[in-house]
Specification:
The complex is a heterodimer of chains A (450) and B (310). With 450 residues, chain A is of the alpha+beta class. Chain A contains twelve helices and 14 strands. By secondary structure, chain B is of the alpha/beta class. Classes of the chains: A alpha+beta (450), B alpha/beta (310).
Amino acid sequence: MGKVLNLAPVSRIEGHAKIAIHLDDTGNVEDAFMHIQSLRGFEKFIEGRPAEEVPRIVNRICGICPWMHHTASNKAVDGAFGVTPTATGHKLRELLQVMAHINDKILHFFFLAAPDFVLGPDADYSVRNVIGVVKAAPELATKVVQMRQLGQMMIERFAGKAIHPIAAVVGGFSKPLLESERQAMIKDTQTLLDFAEYTLDFAKNNVFNKYLEVIKQLGVIKTGFLGTIDKNDKSFRIFDGDLRLMKADGTFTDFKTEDYLDYLGEHTEPWCFGKMPYAKSWGEGFDMNLDAPKGIYRSNTLARINVCDHISTPKANAALEEFRSVFGRPAQQTLLYHYARLIELIYACERTLELLNWDGITDTNVRAEVTPGAGRGVGVVEAPRGTLIHDYTTDENGCITKANLIVGTTHNIAPMNMSVKQSAIALIKDGKYDQGILNQVEMAVRAYDP
Amino acid sequence: MSGEKVLLNTEWLCDCGGCHIALVDLHEKILNVLESVEIQKCPVLTDIKEYPEAEIGILTGSIRTEHDRHAALEMRKKCKTIIAFGTCAVYGGLHGAGLAHSREELVDCVYKNSKTTKTDFVPSERIDALSHEVTPIDEVIDVDLYLPGCPPHAHFIFESLTTLIEKKKPETNQETVCGRCRRVMKKTDVTEIKDPLEGVPDEHTCFLSQGYICLGSATLDRCLAPCPNHGVACSGCAGPSMQILTEPTRDIRTEVADRMSRLTNIPAEKVKQRIESSAKTHYAYAMATKMVGNKPTFLIQKWIADVEAQ
């Protein structure tokens, strides 16, 4: 009888999970699991509520990416009520969501992931954290804290709440953007764009080049990818567009967001509360076998970078071209999620500036008239952690009768399990392991930013 | 150096993680805090998996599984002062809808009656089962201090941490959200309650005066009133005001109905009925706490049944 190594909780991630590595009698890995231990049941308890209230209730699914739930939910209710938001309301929603992406990426890269690279995967666990980074690189740490503050305060000043927002409403947005606010935001975003470029350079020099061998091995699996692309030029999008489901060989199918039921299904394992989405349309079922996975695709940064034809903003596109020239398309190395995240950081800053410079952004016509009623709406956006789907049906009073949610992180639950198993098998041999090795197994999860 | 610092543990139970982000969002002030505080266990920031001894323990989230219960008990054992941090820890939070839905209803909806899932079982192997209902943490452990808010605003977090570090008595501002709202209350001749989507509310006038239901007057201020100050009525996410908590017969709906009827020509009874008819929304954040759930006037199951019977 072998033994089970429990890593609980998985730390420096943004959710609740534990890893169990099962060793056989010889101390080699028999199997490994990542258990998601939390379930709240939002799909049920939003039933019966007036749909227009739901966009500020479902925020609470995730305190890390509440803006994406807020915008996806508003889009779903728009759809159910048959309302088209005003042009400015639509763009203000995108602006705030893209701004929220900026802060999220700074948080993940520096606060959660960086300790593994700045201090090293084998650094003592008691200092391998952002506080250790503050001590090791105080100037960088202060800069990071200032940049995140700049981003969060930009949102809070204009939209009231950065965490659990309220400012997007069915039909558009609750308030217009003043010219003075726009000018201040342009200035702040320019500062953030400079920092984003600095960050990518820093990471290329200090992380990606230095850890190239680790990147080639740790948690590497071969899967398909899901992400959002522009309806017309098939470029990178995080707020709206069509979905693209790509196979591991790079071939793909594009589809309308409202048709997601034809392409995606959710598998359930008895040891995990989180459901595991898979590519139903491939017709091969679901299997997490490392050598011959079936139906498995990934979402989140690496997936979006892989599926898009190009990126519409110049600096991010240059970074994408450089990335592809080194790692190809689709890139499969799990730790490249970090690299892709920083390309997205540059895009988010550039896109924020584009939106702020759009003539209509300060227009006061921010909200379309809305009449609650019966219908169905599917709202899809790209959350930092993956494609986020809210699907609501309403009755004639405009109350929710049925809700189906596929939350960003869940797309990656099966792939994370595979990466955990792959890294555990590669790193743990004949009963030999230490805290540095176990941390590397966690690093395979951390890359996905669950 | 670290020997002189105040030792801090944090732990999250069943929650969204937003309260921990709110702690990070002390921004530059977090650097001040770090000068006098040593963060030990903190699942989102550090790799310390066990529970070291600490002066201050921050618990976010509510109790939904055996894992949550165990974590709360361990924190209590190791921390001198426990802060119930955020609305979920204090009142059970949004997912504390136990009075409205049973555990079976929730899991059936997620696993058995879902558009994208075809499963005939509920996961239960090697993971802790869900408890029958969500409980706020003070039903399991003793709590020393309460800081509700969804999440609490950085202003209150910094204030409370500073007073604890300096070993002073924490301030307990008991104002409602109205205290920080810039809108002006005025008597109007409005006779009908408006739906949230009806018309565009005037940005300078109190929502209640205009006929829109707003829970600001029934909600404790731990947020600095961002919603009414940015065009949206308060939904009560920081939980009920002190008056509601301490007076057995006062309630969210009686409080709002009183004030709204005085500011408009809408009868109080009409406001009460409207709030009862969407009780799941208006009592969303605090129904799991006995302080609200056990009130003799709080009849949410009846209100929900009444709506379903219509």
